[in-house]
Design brief:
Rossmann fold; two-stranded parallel ribbon; 6 helices; binds S-adenosylmethionine
Length: 180
């Protein structure tokens, strides 16, 4: 199914992009769910060693290619090969709203509870992260955090919150996840 709706950069995008600019230099970077390409472009501007963008939305993949960034269609890591120094994800994290249409829910909803896609991402990210690698991922106060915390621990990762922002309805935070 083709989805023409590309996520417009928002507060979560800007919170993440600010740190991507600091983390990406000389790194092999993977941007999952790249959308408009804001994170991939930030990594490129910060002189990353290489940048690969991916998305489940074919329109987004096409748009990012037109920006001169390597971009592939992939459901999370389904088409991703190899290991990366920096893996970035600003996931759809809201609990599913049954009134929302398919195109819109693909960029906003992380599953029934909201944490499902993030949990899958973490499980799959493990084998694509270099030993000294870092994951940067957005979480929201609207998403249950307990399972995310448990999964990070069970995968033998550690995390810290490196930035956050209070919005009208939620607080968004940026996690830095790495090997201990
Ligand atoms: C909240 S938007 C973030 C877009 C952009 N990275 C940013 O920071 O503005 C989430 C993105 O994840 C993509 N996405 C949703 N489910 C996905 C999946 N299973 N695999 C890959 N990308 C996915 C959506 O198409 C959308 O582009």
């Amino acid at each position: 199914m083709t989805n023409n709706l590309i996520y417009e950069p928002s507060d979560d995008s800007f919170l993440l992009a600010k740190q991507v600019k600091k983390y990406a230099k000389n790194k092999k970077v993977l941007d999952i769910g790249s959308g408009s390409g804001i994170q991939a472009l930030s990594a490129k501007k910060a002189k990353a060693k290489s940048v690969l963008a991916s998305d489940i939305n074919k329109s987004a993949v096409k748009k990012i290619k037109s920006l001169g960034i390597e971009s592939i269609y992939s459901n999370l890591f389904s088409k991703i090969k190899g290991k990366y120094d920096l893996i970035i994800f600003n996931p759809p994290y809201l609990p599913k709203d049954e009134r929302e249409d398919y195109d819109s829910s693909l960029i906003t909803s992380g599953g029934k509870r909201g944490d499902e896609l993030t949990l899958k991402f973490l499980q799959q990210a493990k084998k694509h992260l270099e030993k000294s690698g870092i994951i940067l991922i957005i979480v929201s106060s609207l998403t249950p955090f307990e399972k995310i915390k448990k999964t990070i621990k069970s995968l033998n990762f550690k995390f810290k919150i490196i930035d956050s922002k209070k919005l009208f309805m939620e607080k968004i935070s940026l996690l830095e996840i790495s090997h201990p």
